[in-house]
Amino acid sequence: MSASVTIKEIQSAEDAARKAVSSSMISPRFYTTDHDYMNKINIEPVRAEWDMMMKEYEGDNNQDHFQRDEKFAQEVQDLLPKLTPELRKEFLDFLVTSLTSEFSGCILYNEIRNKITNPDIKQLMTFMARDESRHAGFINSSLKDFGLGVNLGDLKRDKPYTYFKPKYILYATYLSEKIGYARYITIYRQLERNPDKRFHPIFRWFERWCNDEFRHGESFALILRANPSLLKGLNLLWIRFFLLAVYSTMYVRDHTRPALKMAMGLDPTQYDYEVFRVTSEISKQVFPISLDSDSPKFRKEMNHLYQVAELYYKAKEQGGLIGGIQKAWYATLGALTFVRMYLIPVNHHNLPAEIRIVPVW
To answer: Do 216 and 135 touch, CB atoms closer than 8 A?
Structure first.
């Protein structure tokens, strides 16, 4: 499998900074929200589970994890010269995108923490910002191995911010943290079975890293379950939208950048649907619906969305009047494909009495 979309090679720190600042349909964004709403969130219905989780955060079992040892440095020196040009290009794209995503969370959580007085949410945002800051700094260290470190202060200042309603923040953050766990743990297990496929030492950190992501998602699960109005009625339409948006963004990104997964011995399509399966199982703790990702129609439309996205990016690269017209046409086709997928019947299930779950995948 090979992608026809050209990923612009990151050759300098300036290129990395431009990549991090840029905005596209599948690139991570920086968000801001309504702090008055966040200040009023009530978690009393889940107080016992909440207090237990805060103790876990205070225990900080990863405080010594995100540190590079001598073995890491030696692996970098041994492995970097062996990267093929295509894999190097996609890996750098992955690092910059991951850095931007982690730093996006850090900025959002810090902003909420600084602008609210609600002690429960303020405490949570402090812990989550701490974790995301570590993740972003750790990724940036790997970029510096290539001479491509990103100035995070400049990124915070220069990247555009998107306003999201608080309930959208709750849905999207819960899903991004849980699908982040599913992605990282699937990669970790694959490379644990096939260490010869581990082309960079950063992947050895993924197990405890993704457990941070899992715990972040658990926090938002408690918030959502403590406010059940967010999980019924017309809000189910928004849940359905965010599920599909997160899955389709991942599918398009992975299929336009296949060399990374293939170097790990993973087929991008099989990998994505395994991640969807795990994420759907996890999200049953909160959402009374899940997407039927096993449906032949769903898979056909998802693949069509990727094909349309390839044509869209080709038109964007072409530029000019013809490229602009084609880009608008393919954007319309992509939107129509998304709508068709949105209308595919979903699975329904009851919410479990026990909210929290254990990361056993």
So the answer is: no
Q: Which residue range(s) make up the domain with 104? A: 13-235
> Is position 60 within any domain?
yes
- Range list of H helices, 256-319: 258-263, 268-283, 296-318
Structure tokens at 106: 């850090």
Count: domains in the chain: 1
Per-residue pLDDT of the chain (361 residues; tens, 9 = 90+): 444 555 677 888 888 888 888 876 667 888 999 999 999 999 999 999 999 999 999 988 777 778 888 888 888 888 888 889 899 999 999 999 999 999 999 999 999 999 999 999 999 999 999 999 999 999 999 999 888 999 999 999 989 899 999 999 999 999 999 999 999 999 999 999 999 999 999 999 998 888 899 999 999 999 999 999 999 999 999 999 999 999 999 999 999 889 999 999 999 999 999 999 999 999 999 999 999 999 999 999 999 999 999 999 889 888 898 988 998 999 999 999 999 999 999 999 999 999 998 888 8
Domain assignment of residue 260, yes or no = no
Q: Residue 346 carries which DSSP code?
A: P
- Is position 247 within any domain? no
Rounded Cα gap, residues 144 and 153, in angstroms: 16
Evaluate whether residue 151 is within a structural domain: yes
